[in-house]
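Hi everyone,

Forwarding the result from last night's run.
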Amino acid sequence: MIDPAAGSETRGGLLAVDGRIADLGPTLTAQNAPDGARVIDCAGDVLAPGLIDMQAFVGEPGAEHRETIASATLSAAAGGVTTLVATSATFPAVDDPAVVDFVLRRARDTGRVRVLPMAALTKGREGKEIAELGLLQQAGAVAFFDGARSVKNALVMRRAMSYARDFGALVVHFPQDPDLAGGVMNEGDFALRLGLAGVPREAEALMLDRDLRLVALTGARYHAAIVTTTLSLDALRAAKAAGLPVTCGVTINHLTLNENDIGDYRTFLKLRPPLRLEDERKALVAALAEGLIDVVVSDHDPQDVEMKRLPFAEAEFGAIGTQTMLAAGLRLVHSGDISLPKLLAAMSSRPAEILGLEQGHLQKGAPADLIRFDPDEPFVVDPEKLHSRCRNTPFDGALLQGAPKTTVVAGEIVYERAS
């Protein structure tokens, strides 16, 4: 049993009653389980809190051809994700309390795991006028995020931060200057050889630098959704050292892949922000191990075949990832770059702490959101066996380890892999 919040690893059993952890520890065994309890022999597998994916596209409303809450949550459950934090990048955007309510109701009706909506920071995600943050928060929005659209206007961003601060709300932002980031992959020699327009590292760093100065000005809680460069890491290290209320995330793709994996124009690896150099990837892994990077996300972004089976420059950005996030992350554990508790903390307890959730702990009274997996069990990623409505995985055909066997939400088994 691994409790990433405490950094502990122990052997023993766990008892869930009425959706919560009633007891756990080395003395709890099948022999002293309560009468009528279902006993699952984990046979030496890892038991850990369910993952919290802090950035995923769920399709509803308006993009059901790409994903639905039903398919997104099945994919999540199969990947060990028990809480999906849905982005506001829907059609219409989640910028009205009625849309927040719609997402919550659809999740209750069709979802297998918990779904928590983020609302738009600006109306229509257009970056021009602040959304009604207070009303959206009352309706159930857990944070405010315009998706992969940056708020260009510094005055609008300052007002949004000030408004969010007054409500104690979390501002999540995608730090990328849209004017400077007009390319389709990382700027450098490889992009030149492929004849593709590049995105410089500075496109991310300039926007992040601006945001951090606005955090210092307003005192708002701020989360950089995705960081990918050492320039950003340096800025965040300085901001945290100064005591600013800032956190940041990184995608599992940027931790485990680099620009060379694009190879011969593989459009499933066309991502926003783009995959970077290997040295940058290693720096991200080191920052995660250090604790500078707080959260690992899937950035689950389903795209149908028509949008990906195009020349690289014309193909849509994005990749699916909820079902493979844990297994891909275990690559870093097997390589010795990070410990298993540290990886799980970035995927469960730390997101829970940032969002103010009860999940992410293995302790008495905590929600019984659990996953069971064997971190050493190998499997080959077969896109046809993934549960998303789309198949644009960057790990197509990859040999990974550690696919979850059992996923539990509030004490109920929502996914059990066929043996």
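The chain has one domain: 48-363+376-416.

Cheers,
N.
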